[in-house]
Amino acid sequence: MIEQMIIRYGEISLKGKNRSEFEQRLLNNLRRAVADMPSVRLHKAGGRILADVGGADLEVVERRLASVFGVVSLSPVEVCPLTLEDMALAAVSILNSEHEGRKATFKIEVKRTNKRFPLNSLEVAAEVGGRVLDALDNLTVDVHHPDSTIFVEVRDDGGYVYGTKLPAVGGLPVGSAGRVGLLLSGGIDSPVAGWLSLKRGVELEAIHFHSFPFTSQRALDKVETLAQILANWAGRVRLHTVYFTDVQTEIRKHCPESLGITIMRRMMVRIAEQIARERKLLSLVTGESLGQVASQTLESIRTINAVTNLPILRPLITEDKVDIMKRARQIGTYETSILPYEDCCTIFVPKSPRTRPRVEEAEEAEANLDVPNLVKEAVRRTTQKTFVAEEFVESVLPMV
Ligand code: ATP
Ligand code: MG
């Protein structure tokens, strides 16, 4: 019975001297993903991680570990004594469960790191393959396009025999890339943008702009649910909820309606930048996608961007809405994102927003706003809440 699993983590191995820190981080994140399954034991083993399932449900462990950022692929593996008979037995058992007596082709691929083993790789492949053919008469060899490839690793501590390499979520372990501030709305896009950043190893703090009483408690609950879902993937997400009502009221009072959205966005970025400074966030992240709405034209993005030197990551900038929606379904945010709610942006939508606002126009329109004070007050009235993973993510893979 298969009780072990090989966990591979491609890109990390490229990271030279940071490698051991990366591996340790991944190991910690993997352990957290199976924290409720005490029989599962994980340890580093020569450029990869091995899991001993210890009687736990193999498929559950597989789905959990495949959802941890940084894992590229995994394989349930039979670890056996270093004899041709044992390695062949393991291969037979895997092929049997894959084909259950139906006609199929296979090949054996051998990697030998144990140089004391008396046979070389080709000889091991021939010997194990021959024994498989003797044992299972539904199978034939095809080295070019086999239905199944069985991998046999001849290592110092035993034979490792496995079939499929299951694709995992990929990316880099959360915590390996620094901290960023995600501008999180209740929409479909920004949670996906946050997830994609997590996938590249960042630690996430979410910043939400709330305009109570124009926006309801329900709208806020929804954002908190999204923060919780992201925390389930990330381990932990801190949410900053900014009191934005006064800013919006002032914009409405003092600025031309057609530039309202542009100026509101500029204020969001200014406030987020201040929070970033206090929380040592290295960058902001938004769910913007080119041309999706009036505020997401290149001119508009430039005018919004002009208020900050902080890098703003836009992981979805070139994505189509249908693809973003598909991703939202895969990561589990879609059902929450589509709940009806009022956004602070939707309640003040001008009848005809400028689609190509220039920087000078925006600056002129802001002349009657006390920008520094509005930013200061909004930051002062910001509240924080930390979400920690409360569900174990078991994604359906592959996620591309
Ligand atoms: P989303 O689905 O993420 O709301 P969207 O397509 O509705 O995106 P906009 O409403 O124009 O686009 O918002 C663009 C981006 O600005 C969002 O992706 C998000 O990063 C940020 N944003 C918008 N509203 C808020 C808000 N109330 N709080 C925090 N960030 C916001
Ligand atoms: Mg929105």
TrEMBL record:
Catalytic class of the enzyme: transferase
GO cellular component, one term: cytosol
Keywords: ATP-binding, Cytoplasm, Nucleotide-binding, RNA-binding, Thiamine biosynthesis, Transferase, tRNA-binding
Domain THUMP: 59-165
Reaction it catalyzes: [ThiS sulfur-carrier protein]-C-terminal Gly-Gly-AMP + S-sulfanyl-L-cysteinyl-[cysteine desulfurase] + AH2 = [ThiS sulfur-carrier protein]-C-terminal-Gly-aminoethanethioate + L-cysteinyl-[cysteine desulfurase] + A + AMP + 2 H(+); [ThiI sulfur-carrier protein]-S-sulfanyl-L-cysteine + a uridine in tRNA + 2 reduced [2Fe-2S]-[ferredoxin] + ATP + H(+) = [ThiI sulfur-carrier protein]-L-cysteine + a 4-thiouridine in tRNA + 2 oxidized [2Fe-2S]-[ferredoxin] + AMP + diphosphate
Keyword Nucleotide-binding set for record: yes
Coiled coil ranges: none
Alphabetized PROSITE patterns for the sequence: THUMP
SUPFAM superfamilies according to UniProt: Adenine nucleotide alpha hydrolases-like (SSF52402), THUMP domain-like (SSF143437)
UniProt: ATP binding residues: 183-184, 208-209, 265, 287, 296
Domain of life: Bacteria
InterPro entries xrefs: Rossmann-like_a/b/a_fold, ThiI_AANH, ThiI_fer, ThiI_N, THUMP_dom, THUMP_ThiI, tRNA_STrfase, tRNA_sulfurtransferase_ThiI
Keyword Signal: no
Molecular function via GO: ATP binding; CCA tRNA nucleotidyltransferase activity; tRNA binding; tRNA-uracil-4 sulfurtransferase activity
Compartments, record wording: Cytoplasm
Coarse class of the protein's main subcellular location: cytoplasm
CDD domains the record matches: PPase_ThiI (cd01712), THUMP_ThiI (cd11716)
Task performed by this protein: Catalyzes the ATP-dependent transfer of a sulfur to tRNA to produce 4-thiouridine in position 8 of tRNAs, which functions as a near-UV photosensor. Also catalyzes the transfer of sulfur to the sulfur carrier protein ThiS, forming ThiS-thiocarboxylate. This is a step in the synthesis of thiazole, in the thiamine biosynthesis pathway. The sulfur is donated as persulfide by IscS.
Protein name in UniProt: Probable tRNA sulfurtransferase
Organism the protein comes from: Alicyclobacillus mengziensis
